[in-house]
Amino acid sequence: MASYDTIPSAAKTKPTPFKVEIPQEKLQQLEQLVKLSPLGPETYENLFEDRKYGISRSWLSKAKKEWESFDWRAHEAHINSFPHFKLPVTDDDGRKHSVHFVALFSTNPSAIPIAFFHGWPGSFLEFLPILSLLKSRYKPEELPFHFVVPSLSGYSFSDRPPKDKDWTMSDEARIMDKFMRELGFEAGYVAQGGDIGSFISRILGAEKESCKAVHLNFSPSQKPDGVSEDDANELEKKGLQRGSEFQRSGFAYAMEHGTRPATIGLVLSSSPIALLSWIGEKFLTWTDEDPPTSAILESVSLYWLTDSFPTSIWSYRQHFGPNQVPGGVHGSPKYRLNKPFGFSFFPYELMGVPKSWVAANGDLVFYRQHESGGHFAAMEQPEELLKDVTDFVQQVWK
Questions:
Q1: What are phi and psi of 88, to 5 degrees?
Q2: Which residues are in the Epoxide hydrolase N-terminal domain (predicted)?
Q3: Residue spans of alpha helices (H) in the chain
Q4: pLDDT digits (tens, 9 = 90+) for 102-125
């Protein structure tokens, strides 16, 4: 009987099935630390419920109480209802790099491979709602696509970046391309991404032959020459205003990640409540509607239980300092997409830009604008993003 964990016959290396199983001692330690961690005192700033100055103390207090009795095992059971694997990839220097991934494989020989790449503070968890939709609609033999969701280096159960190398997004794209080809998709695959995943997807599309098309839901860039902001529609203009405000008052975290990753990594590894404050703020302020607290706690728990925070922020160094990409990855001529490129606009994105700006940086053949949804599109609007991606792929795949 066909199943979603049937490995494609063309795979060069068979991935090893993997089960998420956090040691009980680690869970007990987390529970104890959450209970013992104090909250900071009330201040003028943390009494604002509109998060004008960041997370509110009242939200954090309620979330802390819920976390004290959080049933990780129930979430773990749901996570394990999807096929998980690990696959070793050999880098150009001969080092082995183990990639964790979730996948729904089709047994249809003509299925099209699509890789979904997450960002920070995301993880493979963002895409489970999409995988749930697919399981409800298709049997393995009917599934028209292979859906592969890898964990980027340093996130959850994938190997961490090497400690003796200044890991870059180009390094990560190289590993992810090797990963997809090792799975048997050397003839071609589609890359999809938001946040950091959008940078990885763009680099794959620009540099790797096996990546045949790219779909993004995040593509911040500067206004191209010859393009007027007056041409933007109302949703796009609001997106530009949101982006301007984000750069003015919401970008400090990224500068900290990029310029002082050692410090913030050690700080947020010392207290789960500190980590909840840092990550929880992003889920609350980067979304159209507040996600359930349980969903935020699931994500933060995954970061804490896998010690992922300090190993997951390596990409931010390329936004600041000597590794900075001129013009940004999405605005760099080096990474222009000269192959089929699709884009989904969600109005509460952090740095939404007009269609004309997106089109200036690639061969834009598919574009769809939505009325709701924010930075975590796969989590917030799984139906819409899934339809966009599959419509795009069916349009361009030859």
A1: -80, 135
A2: 16-127
A3: 24-36, 57-68, 72-79, 128-137, 169-182, 196-207, 234-249, 252-259, 261-268, 272-285, 293-305, 309-312, 355-359, 377-380, 382-396
A4: 999 999 999 999 999 999 999 999
Of 35, 76, 71, the C-alpha closest to 306 is 76
The type of residue at 288 is D
pLDDT at residue 228 in the model: 79
pLDDT at res. 1: 54
CA dihedral 105, 207, 212, 88 (to 10 degrees): -10
Domain ranges of the chain: 29-76+249-316, 90-243+334-396
Tell me how far apart the alpha carbons of residues 70 and 304 are, in angstroms, rounded to a whole number.
14
Distance CA 65, CA 136 (A): 34
Cα–Cα dist 111/89, whole Å? 23
Q: Determine the Cα–Cα distance for residues 190 and 10; give it in Å rounded to an integer.
A: 17
Q: How far apart are CA 7 and CA 103, in angstroms?
A: 10
Kindly report, residue by residue over 30-39, the tens digit of the pLDDT: 999 999 999 9
Predicted local distance difference test score (pLDDT) of residue 343: 98
Question: What tokens were used for 133?
Answer: 């939709």
Sorted by sequence, the CB contacts under 8 Å of residue 255 that are 6+ apart come out as 320
The stretches in the chain having pLDDT less than 70 are 1, 321
Structure tokens at 150: 């890898």
CATH topology of domain 90-243+334-396: Rossmann fold (3.40.50)
| DSSP assignment letter at 222 | P
Strand, coil or helix: 383 = helix
